[in-house]
Amino acid sequence: MISIVFHHLLPNHYRGLGYFHGGASLQEWIIPCVKIEWPQKASHVNISIQPIEQILSLRPKIVLEIAREGMFIEDTIPRQVEVRLLDARQKTILFRSEPKIITPDQEQVAVTLQPLEDVQAERGTPLTIEVRDLRTDEVIATENTTLMVPLENW
To answer: Residue 31: pLDDT above 50?
Structure first.
């Protein structure tokens, strides 16, 4: 919202100028000022993880669902995220995605994860899926799942 406010000022005739010029023009009486207000603050896109009961591959694909709080796309800011699969008991990272930019015009984003080198996990290992904001390292969303294929010395 932009509003224009007019301030009425008296001419500056004798304040240190040492002379009087004989009158005041409209420019000396009215000075327009522009005041800009944002009615609400933009927020980052909200991300949730589409539930997945079991991980059946060594290159799992996790689907992220994007939700906008406002009616307009412009009210939401994109964010760069990383998806991780962690051993739920030991809290060690087993799989990781490449950084991905999530924009408000998307509804779903499929992210493929790669296993890390020198990690191992047995079939049936409980896992935690984490989505992290790379700028703040904040965990945005989590979901639980189970590894159904053995992960051995990749």
So the answer is: yes
DSSP letter for 66, please: E
Distance CA 102, CA 92 (A): 25
**Which residue has 């896109």 as its token pair?**
45
List domains and CATH numbers for the chain: 2-36 (no CATH), 43-147 (2.60.40.1930)
Q: What is the mean pLDDT of residues 93-115?
A: 95
Q: Is the pTM of this model over 0.85?
A: no
Q: Do residues 91 and 51 touch, judged by C-beta distance below 8 A?
A: no
Q: Beta strands of 9-103 (E only): which ranges?
A: 30-36, 43-44, 46-49, 54-55, 61-67, 76-77, 79-87, 93-97, 100-102
Q: Which two tokens stand for residue 31?
A: 């000075």
- Across the range 18-45, mean pLDDT stands at 66
- Type of residue found at 135: R
